[in-house]
Design goal:
By secondary structure, this protein is mainly alpha-helical. It contains 23 helices and no strands.
Length: 432
Amino acid sequence: MPQGNVSLATRNIFHDRWGRIIPTAFVMYTIAYIDRTNISMALPSMSAALHMTPTQAGDTVGIFFWGYLLLQIPGGYLAERWSAKRFVSVLLVAWGIAAVGCGLVQTARQFWVMRFLLGVSEGGVWPATLVLLAHWFPRAERARANGYWMLCQPAAVIFASPLSGWILGHWDWRVLLIVEGALPFVWLAAWWRLIDDHPGEANWMAAGEGEQLEATLLAQAAELEPTRPEPLLRTLARPQVLLMAVAYFLLCCGGYGYLFWLPSALKSVSATSDLRVAWLFAFPYLLTGIAMVLIARHSDRTRERRAHVAVPLALAGGFFLAAVLAGGRAALLSYLFICMVGPGIHGVLGPFWAIPGEVFSRRVAGSAIGLINSIGGLGGYFGPLAVGYFNERTGDFRYGFGALGVGLLASAALTLLFRTKPEAGKVETTSF
């Protein structure tokens, strides 16, 4: 079946799929992202309560990502070979326990351990959900499906930051982490009821429609099956797979360094309330959500991925450096520049994560996604750590943010080396 040729039955169930699978996954990962990132609002008061230096705070925040990498490849593998629905259900319970535990700690070491366990618990959710979406959305829809689901990242900040600021204003960081940490238990029942692993299993679809959609997806997957199968480990060690991982590592350094330290940076230059900082922090992510939709839609419409990743990343890096240069002289201009960084970083996620599913067979796609995300996700450790280190040494966030900007420019350059899928009709193998 030619790429992008979606059957009539597939078109008829468009609203069912997009109105059921995407929103359910969206809420699930919004909760995950809230539990991962609410520490950014709690960090100033928590650092004081647990007697953490900026470097220690950056290390404690980032240790999440060392735990996060452990289930990346197993998560993609289990989602493909067993069940994304069941695997994510188990993880919902595990990360809920760890997230609530973060609010019960008494020392910095205990918090370090709980953040690590939270990372382990959340580690398999990302690759498992990408595998799930690949089971429901053909290639011509994949960037939009990924992009709409990944709106959970800016949405988590937009909705949770004011709530977190309000909770901090009335109680403290412990109440914040415990209340928001309990959310996975609330959503578990909805996830189990609304999600199916494959269209053919969905009893809420009209007779024959699920099977027809699944046939479309299987036909597209068959185009990617290699003529001569090679070992999984050899496929995952291909230079282009590692290139994607390095580019994603630099992207995550910038994204998480920005996310975890921006509230502290805003508070350092303005003696203002937690709620006001929360609104200043949320505004860039409102722009981010708009950018994610526009970039994903345009990428699917043009069937182009590489430039839709490289150009926004280059702009994000440039805006980061512009914000640093303007920071000492024009605070408002610097803030406007910093607001444009988030859209460039997160706006690329839809087309970026469409690439593995378009160039890998189903046999290795989940594991490839896991490998790229595990290596790349370590940027979530090193990015915040670098900002904390420079801040402790200089007392100024601009040096750390400048380093993140340079990293984003390097990521954009590496993206230009990506190989994407060959022209329609050519026989593909498992390589990039």
